[in-house]
Design brief:
The protein has 384 residues and is an alpha/beta fold. The chain has helices at 19-34, 68-76, 84-93, 111-116, 129-136, 142-162, 171-180, 222-242, 257-263, 278-283, 302-306, 323-327, 337-349, 354-365, 367-380, and strands at 2-10, 35-43, 57-62, 98-102, 120-125, 165-168, 188-190, 212-216, 247-252, 269-273, 287-290, 312-315, 331-334.
């Protein structure tokens, strides 16, 4: 292991089971496998921390004890993350060689202060904020929408400009950042994302022949919900034209009433709210659908299907980061109704062994792959 002092700063609550938190857990495990002296500043959470972080990581949790009024005022002051006071106090008493900002939000109002410590800065960009904020702007109160988006974009810009290395989850995101500042070397690398748990060696049984499709993910916020409703209204009828007996399961967190209303007259669709065992549910299907057609970053929900050996049919935006699996015939991407029909035909006529799907996924997204890629990047940047 490398004998350098490393600090990770994240805004994600590690006990949560969502895309951002799970990606962060993978990043922490990769970093802790390379650096022996590793510390983590994160929001306080309940439960056993050893479930989520390696034994060699020193944990520094912080509590957000601000009142609702103070939180509202802080948005207008640019304090879009609660960690700023704690991090600044911590850096007065602790010295680090490398500081990793996990998501540019975690570096809001902090990047210049971190730079002044003399530490190397690595920022992990979970997405492109311009895209994410545009797609989710209606989620925020009108009173706070402008300052929140403004300071989110500023935090991202500061991280891009002041970091010694900028890591993205996809090649698409890295290319977009480069297009903003074509004359500046921001040391951008598409790193990817990785499962923080060791992937087991398993043998999957052949899938049944019935056309059973499944969609998973959060079923309440607009960037996730709107594409699913659009899929049900415009694309699911195309599936039923080809497969009269096709069934669709939609499973995930807190389904909205809009979703229930959209599906209520279609007996081929089943909604399962907050399933206890998503993996077991997905394994009962034989095709996975991801219709998310907005945003940036990497859509982690696609992994729900790949982990169970299911071939994936997804919108081309959701295919970002999964290019090797698309080349291998495990992922099929579409961009409109015409291309959907073609890809659906390819999906239904493919005879992909679920074990090949799983092994291809494992090769691309295992923790070992993440460690190897990061090690190469750090060597290239002369940080190791």
């Amino acid at each position: 292991m490398i004998q350098k002092r490393l600090l990770i700063i994240t805004r994600h609550r590690l006990h949560e089971n969502n895309g951002g938190a799970n990606a962060t857990k993978g990043f922490i495990h990769c970093l802790a496998s390379i650096f022996d002296d590793c510390s983590l500043i994160c929001p306080a959470f309940e439960g056993d921390a050893t479930i989520y972080i390696p034994a060699n990581v020193k944990l520094y949790p912080y509590h957000d004890q601000r009142s609702r009024i103070t939180k509202g005022l802080d948005v207008w002051r640019g304090k879009i993350c609660a960690n700023e006071p704690y991090v600044k106090r911590h850096l007065k008493d602790h010295a680090y060689d490398i500081i990793v900002v996990d998501h540019s939000f975690a570096g809001a109002l902090l990047v210049k202060a971190i730079k002044d410590t003399g530490a190397k800065i690595i920022t992990i960009h979970h997405n492109v904020e311009r895209d994410y904020q545009h797609d989710n702007r209606k989620e925020y109160s009108i009173l706070f929408r402008w300052p929140y988006i403004h300071y989110a974009l500023k935090a991202e810009k500061d991280c891009l400009q002041y970091s010694d290395i900028n890591l993205t989850l996809t090649e698409k995101d890295a290319l977009e950042f480069k297009s903003w500042y074509p004359d500046r070397d921001m040391h951008l690398y598409p790193w990817g994302t990785f499962d923080y748990r060791p992937m087991e060696d398993k043998t999957l049984s052949p899938k049944h022949k019935e056309p059973h499709f499944i969609i998973t993910g959060s079923l309440y916020f607009m960037q996730s919900l709107n594409p699913i409703i659009e899929f049900i209204q415009h694309y699911w009828p195309l599936v039923k034209e080809v497969c009269h007996e096709a069934t669709l399961t939609i499973a995930g967190r807190n389904p909205s009433q809009i979703l229930y209303k959209t599906c209520k007259d279609d007996n081929s669709i089943t909604i399962i709210p907050n399933p206890d065992d998503m993996a077991a549910l997905v394994s009962q299907a034989n095709y996975y659908i991801c219709p998310i057609n907005a945003g940036s970053g990497l859509k982690l929900r696609v992994m729900d299907g790949l982990k169970q050996g299911l071939p994936v049919l997804c919108h081309q935006i959701s295919a970002a980061g999964y290019e090797p699996l698309e080349i291998a015939g495990c992922v099929y991407s579409y961009h409109n109704e015409e291309s959907f029909g073609k890809k659906l035909h390819q999906l239904l006529t493919s005879e992909m062994d679920p074990n090949i799907v799983y092994q291809t996924f494992k090769k691309c997204f295992s923790l070992e792959t993440g460690i190897s890629r990061l090690n190469d990047i750090l060597l290239q940047e002369n940080i190791l």
